[in-house]
Amino acid sequence: MFHRFVSMLILPAALLLGGFSVALAQEPTALVQIIHNAADPGAAVVDVYLGDTKAVDDFAFRTATPFLILPANTDLTVGVAPGNSMSSADVIAPFTVNLAPGRYVAVANGVLNPANFAANADPAAAPIAFDLYSIDSISDTAADDATVDFVIFHGVTDAPAVDVRTGGTALVESLSYGEATTTLSVPADSYILDVAPAGGETLVSYTADVSTLGGSSLTVVASGFLDPAANQNGPAFGLWAAIAAGGDLVELPVYTAPTTAMVQIIHNAADPGAAVVDVYLGDTKVIDDFAFRTATPFIELPVNTDLTVGVAGPNSESVADVLASFDVNLAPGRYVIIAKGVLNPANFAANADPDAAPIGFSLYAIRGISEAADDDATVDVVIFHGVTDAPAVDVRTGGTTLVESLSYGAASATLSVPAKSYILDIAPAGGATLVSYTADVSALGGASLTVVASGFLDPTANQNGPAFGLWAATAAGGALIELPPVTVSVEEELAASANVSVQPNPATSGAELLFTMPVASEATVTVVSTMGSVVLERALGMLPAGDHRFWLDATQVGSGQHYVTISAGTLRTTLPFTIVR
Predict the structure, then answer these.
(1) What contacts 466, CB < 8 A, 6 or more positions away?
(2) Are strands 53-60 and 238-242 parallel, antiparallel or unpaired?
């Protein structure tokens, strides 16, 4: 039983702290925070006496003192009286306490006359009469700025033992009235706390956003009455938090599950026959003339509801014109849904990757898309492989692998990167770079993007559909943003066009590589297959500035799509090169 109202007024020399008269500390001492959590309407405001002296005046329900310095190893008499009491003769609940050195939270809890309130049926519960409860070994701060320390105290006189869970994980099990947890240390983040009778289903959930409280130590109290009508219409049940500075407790808001999901749809199906489509939700046309490589903004859709999404040709008249339909049921969250694939796979090149998704037209949902990056210095990115005829790929930058072995139809986890400019190298999984792109996100700090690999690796084998590239969708939607292929360096002397071409292309036995050297430099030509194998590599030595030709001998090279790269100093240009026989 506790020492906490004891907090203040111990020696003749006193210090006024937050409206409390607090004794100057002598060794040994204890640090004590007092929380008024007694929900009895008759104790809504109390005075606290130390001996015959009023130490805390008009101490309100759901408020807390700061941490106060008290003498340790000393018998102290603490009395609780109604607000505006005249003397210690008005005390209605006296307590004798003796503090050991340490750091405490003392919770005033219970009701003045238990006969006038609902009983607690939990055999492990403490008596519901007004009392002081001591929580020992309270931490001063969390271990670091990335975590938060807190204890939970069960202070609801008519509530059974409870479990407290978050995300399906039990933080607290079978906590009875009058009990407190040990210190819990969690990452500084936002949580949904589910409160349930021990071993039972959730009764109510609360939002506990401690993302800005890294390094802090808190006390969370279950407060009020589960059934106010049976308890003199006292305050209702809730979770409230006390911070070290004291003052009014902070109410944790009741969590209400969202009834909608936020969804962005990206048209990334490269089939020329689906270049423009209409989208239906049930019988209603919700997107008219939805073009390839465009995206909607984020729109609200109902959750936990069976929905039918239909895709029809442009200028469709009704849902009867739908070419493909999909049944979806969304959980709460934020999604990007990508339309991908081809309408008739038999008319397009197959995908030899055994882990690739089927290339038929379908929808792919990416759940857990961030609304924004953590701060304005970073950008959140998800990468989706949407190229039906491409193998699994690696995405690298500066020698670091961002994504490894991403197969067609799969998406990466969210990547959080500094807001700056990057060169993204695309390679078959484990192979050499085929092509590189510039991704300048230096002006997009705080944004969340979806980058899609789009088009066909070999358009000639896919009804001459759009060619491979990387494109980005922003949260605002609209036309996707093309990431430009890397062709020349950013250095000023190489800013002129390299004028690179392959003629003829497609070729049978070979072709000429035509290029212009902006400055004299060592040069190399490399031909790489779509599987990342180097099939031809030739060092050309030092070449002067000007126009040059190089014969690409393809007699020993298999048919199909390849990539030819001319490298000269920091200059690198890559072009697709197709061999047909």
Answers:
(1) 270, 292, 293, 454, 455, 456, 459
(2) unpaired
| Side-chain half-sphere CA neighbours of 183 within 13 A | 18
User: What pLDDT, on the 0 to 100 scale, is given for residue 570?
Assistant: 61
**Residue 469 CA neighbour count, 13 Å, CB half:** 17
Residue 35, CA atoms < 13 Å, CB-side half-sphere: 31
User: Pick from 251, 277, 304: which residue ends a domain?
Assistant: 251
Number of domains in the chain: 4
Q: What is the DSSP string of 172-204?
A: EEEEPTT-BPPPEEEESSEEEEEEEETTS---E
| Cα–Cα distance, 391 to 572 (Å, whole number) | 23
pLDDT, position 563: 82
185 and 276 assigned to the same domain:
no
**Full-model pTM:** 0.63
> Tokens for 339?
């339309």
Q: What is the DSSP string of 232-261?
A: TT-PBPEEEEE-TT-EEPEEPPBP---SEE
Which pLDDT score is estimated for 571?
A: 67
- Do 184 and 96 share a structural domain? yes
Judgement on whether residues 265 and 221 belong to the same structural domain of the protein: no
Please report, for residues 189, 501, 507, 531, the alpha-carbon distance to residue 510 in angstroms, rounded to integers and kept in the order given: 60, 13, 6, 20
Output DSSP code: residue 126.
P
Q: Is residue 29 one of the residues assigned to a domain?
A: yes
Please, are residues 85 and 72 in contact by the beta-carbon 8 Å criterion? no
* pLDDT score recorded for residue 531: 64
Q: Are residues 220 and 82 in the same domain?
A: yes
Is 458 within the bounds of a domain? Answer: yes
Please count the other Cβ atoms lying within 10 Å of the Cβ belonging to residue 496.
14
C-alpha torsion angle, residues 502, 506, 511, 516 (rounded to 10): 0
Same domain (yes/no): 109, 227 = yes
Buried b (16+ CB within 10 A) or exposed e, 549-573: ebebebeebeebbbbbbbbbbebbb
Mean pLDDT of successive 10-residue stretches along the chain, which has 581 residues: 35 33 59 94 90 88 91 86 91 86 94 96 96 92 95 98 94 97 96 96 95 96 98 98 95 93 97 96 95 96 94 94 93 95 96 95 95 94 97 93 96 95 92 89 95 94 94 95 72 47 87 83 83 80 87 83 78 79 77
Same-domain status, 86 and 214 = yes
Q: What is the structure's pLDDT at 498?
A: 54
Closest C-alpha to 71, from 36, 26, 138: 26
Got the DSSP string for 138-178?
A: --SS-SSTTEEEEEEEE--TT---EEEEETTEEEEEEEPTT
Give the domain-ending residue among 319, 343, 367. Answer: 367
- Could you give the CA distance from residue 431 to residue 264 in angstroms, rounded to a whole number? 33
SS3 (DSSP) at 508: coil
- Closest by alpha carbon to 154, among 130, 123, 168, 133? 133
Give CA–CA dist 147/448, Å, rounded.
Answer: 25
Q: Are residues 574 and 476 located together in one domain of the fold?
A: no
Same domain? For 117 and 206 the reply is: yes
Cis before residue 28, ω within 30 degrees of 0?
A: yes
**What does the pLDDT read at residue 3?**
35
306: domain range? 260-367
